[in-house]
Design brief:
Blueprint (H helix, E strand, L loop, with lengths): L8 E6 L2 E5 L3 E8 L10 E8 L5 E10 L11 H4 L2 E5 L12 E5 H8 L5
Antiparallel strand pairs: 1-7, 2-3, 3-6, 4-5, 4-7, 5-6
């Protein structure tokens, strides 16, 4: 069961990698498959990042669709347009691999595409 950073936030993901993209910000991996119900609307939310050592900080995060150029007709549209998490104004060095990202319950439900998230 995921740990909670505060009473109103739940763990969404463990960071496996980060990528700095000019004009976008720090992109966190993994990304999420576009929810099947569609009608995705971007979300901006203050998230909590907890390092493997337990150090926490907050940052504004954008949850948005991003095009990934994957060749091959067998790859679904939802994998070509995943939901990615980006942080603006946060240096790559501040976000350690293995850190946990905590979000509101409605955001987790929207990103994962189901009510029981």
């Amino acid at each position: 069961m995921p740990q909670e950073a505060s009473m109103d936030k739940v763990e969404l993901m463990k960071i496996e990698d980060t990528f700095m993209v000019d004009g976008v910000g720090l992109v966190l991996a993994p990304s999420f498959e576009l929810p099947a119900y569609a009608n995705w609307k971007n979300i901006i939310e203050k998230v909590t990042i907890r390092s493997p050592e337990g150090v926490e900080f907050e940052s504004e995060a954008l949850f948005s669709m991003m095009h990934v150029n994957i060749k091959g007709p067998e790859v679904s549209i939802s994998k070509r347009w995943p939901v990615v998490v980006t942080l603006r104004g946060v240096a790559k060095e501040l976000v350690a691999v293995g850190s946990a990202v905590f979000v509101s319950k409605p955001t987790k439900q929207a990103v994962l595409g189901h009510k029981d998230a």
